[in-house]
């Protein structure tokens, strides 16, 4: 599932391919932007802000969000795509490279991206990461369940379902605990550490082990024994938005 680390890595690949070059082919494959053509514009920067990705030109920024299924692929022009063409939402070419955004959850043009994204909390992978501010924002709503608060991008930006489950497990905290009962600074530090360690890895791991089936403490491991106490890992689904609201946990290690 795309989280802050996925988007950070995608931005790094896009930056390498596009930044400093003029777009020589631009195709938006969504109705609202079908007539837009950024050909001739120079890509001035490519940035990630939490789970949001910005491709900046002098006049506008291309803002995208991967949501559940999205991905940016970068390859040389002419190379075969690894996802079906009907999933492509945008195709950009510059300097012999081609970037294709597949199944993007958000794709829009922003004139002032920093203003639009100003609501986001400190970016866990950002240059200006501010742990104290993240703690302050989380603590501002003491009755809220910690599992929900960690996912709220206004508190801190970059955590999705996977990291939420893993962070709560490693801190021994049930995701249903109210924020007021949680020791927030070490939890926020752990979140930063985990995302930072994974920001350029091709395979995400929170255990430090990259072998298949050994990468996660609890996420995706329902029914398997907890790596610490062997109790079967459980999964709860909150609400009805499908996979977006799933939490995995060890009923013994977390309370
Ligand atoms: Zn356990």
Query: In terms of structural class, how would the helical and strand content be classed?
Result: alpha+beta
Approximate strand percentage? 15-25%
Number of helical regions: 6
Order of helices and strands: HEEEEEEEEHHHHHEE
Short description:
The protein is of the alpha+beta class. The protein folds into two domains: 4-116, N-terminal domain of MutM-like DNA repair proteins; 131-249, Helicase, Ruva Protein, domain 3 (Orthogonal Bundle).
Tell me what you see in this structure.
By secondary structure, the chain is α+β, with helices and mostly antiparallel strands. It folds into two domains: about 5-115, MutM-like, N-terminal (N-terminal domain of MutM-like DNA repair proteins); about 130-250, Orthogonal Bundle (Helicase, Ruva Protein, domain 3). About 25% of the residues lie in helices and about 20% in strands. It is built from six helices and ten strands; from the N terminus they run H-E-E-E-E-E-E-E-E-H-H-H-H-H-E-E. It has helices spanning about 5-20, 115, 130-140, 145-150, 160-170, 185-200, and strands at about 25-30, 45-50, 50-55, 60-65, 70-75, 90-95, 95-100, 105-110, 235, 245-250. Helix 3 crosses helix 6 and helix 5 (about 160-170) crosses helix 6. The mean pLDDT is about 95. Zinc ion binds near residues 228 and 253.
């Amino acid at each position: 599932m795309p989280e802050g680390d996925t988007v950070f890595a995608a931005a790094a690949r896009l930056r390498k391919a596009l930044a400093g070059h003029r777009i020589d082919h631009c195709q938006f494959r969504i109705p609202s932007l079908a007539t837009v053509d950024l050909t001739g514009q120079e890509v001035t920067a490519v940035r990630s802000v939490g789970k949001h990705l910005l491709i900046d030109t002098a006049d506008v920024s291309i803002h995208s969000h991967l949501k559940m299924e999205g991905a940016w692929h970068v390859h040389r022009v002419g190379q075969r795509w690894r996802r079906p063409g009907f999933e492509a939402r945008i195709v950009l070419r510059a300097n012999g490279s081609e970037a294709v955004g597949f199944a993007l959850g958000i794709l829009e043009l922003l004139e002032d991206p920093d203003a639009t994204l100003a609501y986001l909390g400190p970016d866990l992978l950002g240059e200006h990461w501010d742990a104290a501010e993240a703690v302050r924002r989380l603590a501002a709503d003491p009755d809220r369940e910690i599992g929900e608060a960690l996912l709220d991008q206004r508190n801190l930006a970059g955590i999705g379902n996977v990291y939420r489950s893993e962070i709560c497990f490693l801190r021994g905290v049930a995701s249903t605990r109210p924020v007021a009962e949680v020791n927030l600074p070490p939890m926020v530090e752990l979140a930063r550490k985990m995302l930072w360690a994974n920001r350029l890895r091709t395979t995400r791991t929170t255990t430090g082990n990259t072998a298949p089936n050994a990468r996660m403490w609890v996420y995706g491991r329902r029914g398997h024994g907890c790596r610490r106490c062997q109790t079967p890992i459980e999964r709860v689904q909150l609400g009805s938005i499908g996979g977006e609201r799933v939490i995995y946990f060890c009923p013994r290690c977390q309370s």
